[in-house]
Amino acid sequence: MASSTQIINFGILNIGNSAEPVLITSSSSFPAIGDWQSINYMENSSGTVENVTIKYANYGIFIDSNQIKIQNSVFEQNYEAIFVSSRGNPDLGGDSFSSVGHNTIIGELVSLDNQSPNKFYITK
Fold first, then answer.
1. Are 3 and 37 in contact (CB under 8 A)?
2. How many CB atoms lie within 10 A of CB 112?
């Protein structure tokens, strides 16, 4: 059974930087997909996720804000890597964004900007 453990951000949450990698993962001795829920960036929140590896979550990052930047990060063994709501508009910067396993980026009417191939836009 999946845990309900999650981080819910209504303000500013910056995780990691180029000099200090961060690993966010399960605390289980036998980790499995869905061991914890997600990092949630709620409406009007902001932050940067840089040089971070997220493992064994249900949704690695849930985005309901347009002020989130994710760069040089890896998503492994999550049910979904990133979930973007209809209000979300993340900037997926850098060329090292990767997803391992059956991770995907999902959202409502997600499209790529041809001018900035790592940036997702939510259209209504």
1. yes
2. 12
Residues of the chain with pLDDT under 50: 1, 95-98, 108-124
- Residue 118's pLDDT is what? 42
CA distances from 14 to 2, 54, 56, 90, 104 (A): 25, 14, 20, 14, 22
**pTM surpassing 0.85?**
no
- What distance in Å separates the CA atoms of residue 113 and residue 103, rounded to the nearest whole number? 21
| CA atoms of 14 and 27, how far apart (whole Å) | 22
Note the Cα 10 to chain centre separation in Å.
Answer: 15
Cα–Cα distances in angstroms (integers) from residue 47 to residues 9, 66, 89, 119, in the given order: 9, 10, 12, 15
